[in-house]
Fold this sequence. Notes:
By secondary structure, this protein is an alpha+beta fold. It is about 55% helix and about 15% strand. It has helices at about 5-20, 30-35, 65-85, 155-165, 170-180, 185-230, 240-279; strands at about 40-45, 50-55, 90-95, 105-110, 115, 130-135, 140-145, 145-150, 165-170. α3 crosses α4 (about 155-165). The longest helix has about 50 residues, at about 185-230.
Amino acid sequence: MREFTIKEKYIVKGLFDRKNESNLAELRTTKLLQNHLDCFALRWELAPRKFIKIYMKQEDAKDIAKLNKQYFKICDFLYFMDELEANHYIKLQTISFAKDTSKLLRQALYDTSKYQYGLPKDIEYSGNLDCFYEIADNRKRLYAVEHIEQNAYTDSVDLLNKYYDKIIYPLPLLEDLVKHEYKSIEQRNFEKQIEENDLHHKEQMRYARNSFYVALLAVVVSAAIPLFIEKCAEPIEIKKSQLKSLEQSIIQSKIILSDTVNVQLCQPTDTFKTLNTIK
């Protein structure tokens, strides 16, 4: 579901509040449209030519631009209701009237407690009967309403006729939407998934950063240990007496080795001389 505009949120909030107040009458499309529009009456026909006629009091419409805006407000409301219905946020309930009006080709929307369209049949009048009258003195007097009007010949009349005098029933899904700041279930799940992925990414980055710091510390320590040992180790000193003793030992070992060699060389000669004497 797309993001709602401020005006659409206002309409949705109105539906939500009316249901919470158990005010079924205020959920009628006629009531909702009357609250949404600045005109006091609408009329439309389905045949022979489709059109919507919008009536606005002359005192309320200082220029034609305000009257022209009413048509667009009607369409915006109807298309938004159609969108809410398609997305299962609302359901239409048909009101059961004593007289079936669903097949009428001509319909009108106005406050029947304040206005009357046309004149009673028992009153003879040769003027324009396509006129609204304001009711006064407990319906004893009628005053013609000075108004301006606009016709729109579009098929939006079909949508207006579909929603006319229906109950717009808000479903629990719409209540959930309002309670969660107009965020759908899909949108909330998507945002939750993004948040979880973001937390997982941050955790991985934190683990990688800590691993880097540990590795960096190991490199620094391994480089510093040899320098520390070299700096702290005491130099080895050899005294002169030790050097003299070592020198004498080396000389003595040479002498012993030389005597041994001489003895071993002399022994064969003596043996040879002895053998010669015997002979």
